[in-house]
């Protein structure tokens, strides 16, 4: 699954992999985002495409339609999201991207859980597939998004059996296009996913378990 991640660089450092300035409707901001412990239930900067340009909006990381009588959800399984009653409309019309430096998972070791930070081996940012209610720019309290997850494979399964669906920059651009249909989006998740062997992971401080803690030390390895 994906329950925490880091989104700490500047907007430009992420956007440079996705689009030229002319293809964005996003104000320039030289300040680092600086969030090393992004948690569900908070507003997160997510990318979507509207009017043939990329937009960046703060959207709540949690989603529950009006008929849902359980706690809001934060993840959607790629295997069922395209066809499920809850997620199909979002899959068709609310596809977005969450950029990040990496994500955290907890692995049970003995009677305790050890957090790990997972990131691309080449140091590039990750682009996680997301779906949510639209239009994102409205800012309604009823809006929200979920991160799409896939089954973990290869070494990643040793940490957790699920992982966020991370797309290549090219696939991320296609994923956000409003004129891409639901079936085409399914093809993008299969052909454009970053493979497990492109990731590395290391143990980090258990301080990440407290959402009040922020700072670069949270993603640093402990040995």
Order of helices and strands: EHEEEEHEEEEEEEHHE
How much helicity do the residues have? Answer: 10-25%
Derived from helix and strand composition plus strand pairing, the structural class reads mainly beta
Continuous helix count = 4
Mean pLDDT: 91
Low-confidence stretches: none
Q: How far apart are the termini?
A: 25 Å
Tell me the radius of gyration.
Answer: 17 Å
Main sheet summary: 6 strands, mixed
Q: What amount of the residues lies in strands?
A: 25-35%
- Describe the global form: globular
Main features:
223 residues; six-stranded mixed sheet; five-stranded antiparallel sheet; globular
Write a short abstract of this structure.
With 223 residues, this protein is mainly beta. Helix content is 13%, strand content 33%.
Description:
The chain is mainly beta and 223 residues long. 13% of the residues lie in helices and 33% in strands. The chain has 4 helices and 13 strands. Strands 5, 6, 9, 10, 11 and 12 form a 6-stranded mixed β-sheet that branches. The chain has a 5-stranded antiparallel β-sheet with strand order 2-1-7-8-13, with no helix packed on it. Strands 3-4 form a two-stranded antiparallel sheet. A hairpin with a 2-residue loop joins strand 3 (43-50) and strand 4 (53-60). The longest helix is centred in the C-terminal third of the chain and has 10 residues, at 182-191. 39% of the residues are buried.
């Amino acid at each position: 699954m994906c329950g925490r991640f880091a989104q700490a660089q500047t907007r430009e450092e992420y956007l440079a992999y996705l689009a030229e300035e002319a293809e964005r409707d996003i104000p320039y901001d030289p300040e680092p985002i600086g969030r090393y412990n992004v948690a569900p239930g908070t507003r997160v900067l997510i990318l979507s495409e509207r009017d043939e340009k990329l937009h960046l909006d703060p959207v709540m990381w949690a989603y529950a339609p009006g008929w849902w009588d359980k706690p809001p959800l934060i993840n959607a399984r790629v295997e069922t999201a395209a066809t499920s009653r809850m997620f199909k409309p979002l899959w068709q019309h609310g596809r977005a991207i969450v950029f990040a430096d990496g994500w955290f998972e907890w692995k049970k070791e003995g009677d305790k859980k050890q957090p790990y930070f997972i990131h691309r081996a080449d140091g590039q940012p990750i682009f996680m597939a997301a779906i949510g209610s639209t239009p994102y720019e409205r800012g309604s309290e009823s809006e929200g998004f979920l991160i799409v997850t896939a089954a973990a494979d290869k070494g990643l399964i040793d940490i957790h059996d699920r992982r966020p669906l991370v797309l290549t920059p090219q696939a991320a651009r296609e994923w956000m296009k409003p004129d891409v249909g639901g079936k085409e989006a399914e093809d993008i998740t299969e052909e454009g996913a970053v493979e497990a062997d492109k990731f590395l992971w290391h143990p980090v401080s258990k301080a990440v378990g407290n959402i009040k803690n922020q700072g670069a030390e949270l993603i640093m390895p402990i040995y």
